[in-house]
């Protein structure tokens, strides 16, 4: 019999599961509770009933049916909606996770499974000493990218466990607040600007114990190349649809790992998601630079991004150079005097890079006098039946437009045609060996894209016109302070391509201990014999042989950024009103609609012209409005539409960064731009 006082108390039974490792202690604990009991009180009652003396501070309730954490401990059970049938698990918020870094190394560390992914990534980056965590995110490898590997690995064993770097003793892994490290103005780790190794005074910041220096080196120094056999077993996208699979698994930054079905000891990929690398500085960013370099290297080796044969050889030469330098890295670390001198030199060069504006002494002149280009160029217009009409005209580049005339004398009159380059796609068409310097312009028109090819006579002319076209496509003129640095960057890349045969290197390729198949994609391994590849890589190597390790990595990253497809993340979509699927390319400043069959761009929309975007969560459709009454809508077929929504908001968030307040991140603004309302 139940007494009247107990009957009127509105108590009810709640079965709680406790995630602990103590043998002989029940894991399922029944408690009598009331609806007005707050979550913190429930935790206290549970711990008192368990009677196990341990630190419970990292524990919280996970509601399994609703897939959510009960983190607001002051809320009552009624307010949370908890009833007698709720399955609550009392478990740790920090759990072990395996992360595969861009350099293909796996680290094992404790991560918060209750924080939003954006916050979790920020904590991970503090542990790994990677600045600018907003540029990275976590990626689940999709099933499509694992198929090839599974077929190949039926008779082979899993990689050895010693390849895993265990970082579970760090402050963040222990569930404690992260050491401010490189987010503190007074405690910034300093790296040797030549070798990329951490300075001895800051080694101990990484972790406790003698493994600290080794851990730093693994993350900050490039790894030995993988074998051609291992490369052949890895997933290599062949089509745009294949490339879209690579971007399908990005986690939602506004939800926790547990909410996205990530379990303890699962493996995720830590990758640079947003291709806007802000304020790269060799003195503080050795780990970050190396991981960007490694992500670029693997993207090129696995043909996730297309490049020409000439460019592939440049990338191979820079990689081969790294491997030869790795054996000297210990000697470099010992030369402390040279290191200090190099540090000062690097600081000066960093200052030049960081200013991002070159010489500012002529700012007033830039404002009052917008420069122009005028020269004879060849105009190539694609015709039907694969014929091309090539003719020389007098071209004038002013503001963001190109006009061309029959000759120089007629330049005072009306032009034959005026091309507005704002919002256009600019694609390099260069073969230095063949003295071919072309610029392909895809200019938006009402019914698609208008193709125009310009041919320049030499490298200098090409660099000036190409830089002007790139700036104009972004709505900027040659008066912009970034014009001269852009010209120099293009000339530098052309110089790397412009190698001459070194008789000694070419005549004795047998004496060089190099496996060229490790440095190029499998497509080029099939095209050339090993000796041919070695000789050609050594030719390209002549132009990069004097660089320091970090400089070579930065050159590699710059060359990667110069590729036409750089920074594009692909998704298969169906546009509203269309009867066929298309590919949508998402970049840091634009969206591109691409024909899935041909790979040709159809239309480009710039973020700078975007008025608003939203998602209809019921039909999973993204709708975007641009200036001049242009609006588009599409559904995403290769991934959840939330991923594209977050990409757009993320790039807009990153565009708001400035060096005036570079120490803190406006996390609230990020979630406002990327979170959405489902």
Mean pLDDT: 81
Count of DSSP-assigned helices: 21
Structural class: alpha+beta
| Helicity, as a percent range | 25-40%
Largest sheet: 7 strands, antiparallel
**What is the gyration radius calculated from CA atoms?**
29 Å
Amino-to-carboxy terminus distance? 48 Å
CATH class of the domain at 96-147 and 163-168 and 195-305: Alpha Beta
Overview of the structural elements:
By secondary structure, the protein is of the alpha+beta class. Among the domains are: 11-92, Roll (Ubiquitin-like (UB roll)); 96-147 and 163-168 and 195-305, Phosphatidylinositol 3-kinase Catalytic Subunit, Chain A, domain 1 (Ubiquitin-like (UB roll), Roll); 372-478, Pleckstrin-homology domain (PH domain)/Phosphotyrosine-binding domain (PTB) (PH-domain like, Roll), CATH 2.30.29.30; 569-675, Roll (PH-domain like), CATH 2.30.29. Helices cover 32% and strands 23% of the residues. The chain has 21 helices and 24 strands. The strands form four sheets. It has a seven-stranded antiparallel sheet with strand order 14-13-12-11-17-16-15, with helices on one face. It has a seven-stranded antiparallel sheet with strand order 21-20-19-18-24-23-22. Helix 14 crosses helix 15 (483-497). The two termini are 48 Å apart. Residues 149-162, 176-187, 203-212, 334-341, 351-368 and 501-511 have low confidence and may be disordered.
